[in-house]
Design a protein that fits this description.
With 271 residues, this protein is α/β, with parallel strands linked by helices. It has one domain (5-270): Rossmann fold, CATH 3.40.50. 39% of the residues lie in helices and 20% in strands. The protein has an 8-stranded mixed beta sheet with strand order 1-2-4-3-5-6-9-10, sandwiched between helices. It has a two-stranded antiparallel ribbon with strand order 7-8. The chain is globular, with a radius of gyration of 17 Å.
């Protein structure tokens, strides 16, 4: 099945953001996660284009987007807002994975009445405690060092951020999700407060073994915390539909077909 694709660029604050559009049906904007690109999500994008008018893009410093002087959640969120403003779509479905899920949840909370549906894919989790503690820092530093070393510069899959920048973004996200800042002992509302403000249907897709099914090391703690966050969300918003997949956090790659079918079914229920 060949689907024609349109490509254009959105520019904001000196950053160029490439947007791809293809498919037919209701508009669906797919927001990738941190260190993820349109190229990595190619299979999921192609599957969704069979039923949706899919618009995908690369975050600043990712893929075909240009590098930036500053990387923060606020900057990424403003980039998403700029992309959606340029598209000018009537109440589109927003789907986001991991960091991208947090971006679409914050956007929907701040722009009531503009989003038709949300698909939250293993992210935007109101975890009851920070995910990355002092005990986790060595592992996460090593993970992001490996990620930046393995990225293929000059390709659609490149990540231009440094390992310290990625770690800093994850630590910032921990505070945004849990509302807890361990460094200054402050407790705030967290992302659960954002969910309370959202006025459109929400569909949650979660990985059953987010941090792998390894019974050793820190993975069990991370899996328990991840599940506790989603349990907390579903108690707060029992209207949210939820599907759990026997997968890790890489489910958008490993389970693309299942995710595409879940999104189709979720949309059919609200159409």
């Amino acid at each position: 099945m060949n689907i024609d694709t349109d490509q254009f660029t959105v520019r904001r604050a000196g950053v160029s953001i490439p947007v791809s559009r293809g498919g037919e049906g209701a508009p669906l904007v797919l927001c990738p996660g941190l260190t993820s690109t349109q190229a990595e999500l190619h299979e999921l994008i192609e599957l969704l284009r069979r039923d949706f008018d899919v618009l995908s893009f690369d975050l600043r410093g990712h893929g075909l987007s240009s590098a930036a002087d500053r990387y923060s959640f606020a900057e990424f969120l403003d980039d998403l807002a700029a992309v959606l403003a340029a598209l000018d779509l009537p109440a589109p479905m927003l789907a986001g994975h991991s960091y991208g899920a947090d971006l679409i949840v914050h956007y929907a909370a701040e722009h009531p009445g503009t989003v038709g549906e949300l698909v939250v894919i293993d992210g935007a989790n109101p975890i009851p405690a920070p995910f990355i503690t002092a005990a986790d820092l060595p592992e996460f530093r090593a993970l992001w060092e490996y990620t930046t070393q393995m990225t293929k510069r000059g390709t659609p899959s490149q990540v231009l951020l440094t390992a310290p920048e990625i770690l800093a973004l994850n630590l910032e996200l921990d505070v945004l999700r849990s509302g807890i800042d361990l460094d200054i002992d402050v407790v705030g509302p967290g992302i659960l407060d954002r969910y309370r403000k959202i006025d459109c249907p929400i569909h949650l897709i979660q990985a059953a073994s987010m941090a792998s099914d390894n019974a050793e090391g820190r993975a069990p703690r991370h899996n328990r915390l991840w599940q506790a966050g989603f349990d907390r969300l579903l108690r707060e918003r029992p209207d949210i539909s939820s599907t759990s997949l026997a997968a890790t956090h890489a489910l958008v790659i490993t389970h693309a077909r299942e995710i595409a079918q879940i999104i189709r079914s979720a949309h059919a229920r609200t159409d």
